[in-house]
Amino acid sequence: MRIVLAPLAVTGAAVLGLLAGVGRATLFALSVLSHLLRPPFYLREFASALMTIGYFSLPVVGLTALFTGGALALQIYAGGARFNAEAVVPSIVAIGMVRELGPVLGGLMVAARVASSIAAELGTMKVTEQIDALVTLSTHPLKYLAVPRVLAATLAVPVLVGVGDAIGIFGGYLVGTTRLGFDAATYLRNTVDFLEFWDIGSGLVKGAVFGFIVALMGAWFGMNSARGAQGVGAATKAAVVTASVLILAANYVLTELFFSA
Amino acid sequence: MIALDDVCKAFGANRVLCGVTLSVGRGESLVVIGGSGSGKSVLLKCILGLVPPDSGRIALDGQDVTRLPRDPFLARFGMLFQGGALFDSLRVWENVAFRLLRGPGRRPRAEARAAAIAKLARVGLGAATADLYPAELSGGMQKRVGLARAIAADPEVIFFDEPTTGLDPIMAGVINALIREIVVEMGATAITITHDMASVRAIADRVAMLHDGVIRWQGPVAGMDAASDPFLQQFIHGRAEGPIAALR
């Protein structure tokens, strides 16, 4: 009997642990949201987070979008040639970038860059008692550390996605006009004519959700980091992995919500 | 001023505090001694509410600390952390003036900076250090900055967590003397936790020894050497042999 029950007990304990963790993280998210609108507001920390998360992520998001747009143009051209539909390259590149690849790849790159940095910074602050020091200085750590970062990421990532969309389309344009023989004016007209406002809007909404997820996971794992360098390392890894998986899951849910028939 | 009554705290199966009863009067300097891992830091964190006790009562001026409004309660305290716990991302003066730049007692930046430089001067640091980042300072300087931050808002109660750990004997002596001067000058109530006996003799009015989760001995610092408690005697003389197991 014990041989049968032991694995079940281990599985049960793991599931309960996972559910408890999800519950605590959800409460943390609700707490962050509830503090967004309540003073005090740490504007200096918010501005600093906006620069770190938004402005300094531009190169990595821009390069990712540029190469993705170029590769997308090549793929669609090769695929379209099978049924004489090469002309769809500009519109499919544009729609693919703004609806899907721009927000998802941008979100994943920001997850790699920002979730890791927030988790490592806050994790180090925890193990060096800086978070305890904040409390003794009458400062709510969640409000001072998590809220400005989450707000900054939620606002900055859609902007990054918008810029990434434009650069991605430009990547497709470069490849289309220099390698695939498209006329520049025709390429641009086909891009603009077939793109609808909601194509762009849905991608920006996705960006905001992904930004929220990235900063929230960084702050959650950082502030709950275990002791020592190993604890900070584990928190950083968990933040990036969880943020990435949640981005992909949220992307499916949002796509279903926005575009399902 | 601060009274702990039968305070208990366990982390899982590890019972750290098992009925600590201790008090410290206004303007008194109490030093809590005990081996590494004996729960000294947990004791301070319980008083501040950073770690909630499992049972027992902690009172400040007769009022249960769990029922006091949090911000005004914390505004009465300053704390020097063991590793300094300075905020890496802020300059030295912003660390010292942290409380002055935020919250209800917020002051203009120029005024807060001037107040921070005055506190830095009080702990023997020149204005040139004000614009440095903590990572650019030596261990002794970081302790001084931590001390300046702890006293920046003129608190009524100051906690010192292992103030001389990691310092050479001369710098430790300087920090001990500075702590004693500042506590006397401000008329503050102080609780210091340490296992450095030089600190104990320099800082304490009264000493309490924490061992096995309870206060094993307490009394005036002058009576420490003559006390008959074998645990205390082993600790203050640093003997490997005695009732306290060397391997814990």
Structural write-up:
The complex is a heterodimer of chains A (261) and B (248). By secondary structure, chain A is mainly α. Chain A has one domain. Helices cover 85% and strands 0% of the residues of chain A. Chain A is built from 9 helices and no strands. Chain A has helices at residues 2-36, 43-53, 58-80, 89-127, 130-136, 141-178, 184-193, 197-223, 228-259. In chain A, α2 (43-53) packs parallel to α6 (141-178). Chain A starts with a helix and ends with a helix. Chain B folds into 2 domains: 1-76 and 187-248, 3-Layer(aba) Sandwich (Rossmann fold), CATH 3.40.50; 77-154, no CATH class. Chain B contains 9 helices and 10 strands. Chain B has helices spanning 40-48, 70-74, 92-96, 98-101, 109-122, 139-151, 169-186, 197-203, 230-237; strands at 2-11, 14-24, 29-33, 55-60, 63-64, 77-80, 157-161, 189-194, 206-211, 214-220. In chain B, β4 (55-60) and β5 form a beta hairpin. At the A-B interface, α4 and α5 of A face α2 and β6 of B.
Notable characteristics:
heterodimer, A: 261 residues, mainly alpha, 9 helices, 85% helix, B: 248 residues, alpha/beta, Rossmann fold, 2 domains, 6-stranded mixed beta sheet, 4-stranded antiparallel beta sheet, 33% helix, globular
Note the gap between the termini of chain A: 50 Å
Number of domains of chain B: 2
Assembly annotation: heterodimer
Mean pLDDT of chain B: 88
CATH H-level superfamily title of the largest domain in chain B? P-loop containing nucleotide triphosphate hydrolases
**H and E order of chain B:** EEEHEEHEHHHHEHEHEEH
Q: Kindly name the structural category of chain B.
A: alpha/beta
Low-confidence stretches of chain A at least 5 residues in length (pLDDT < 50)?
none
Q: What global shape of chain A is seen?
A: globular
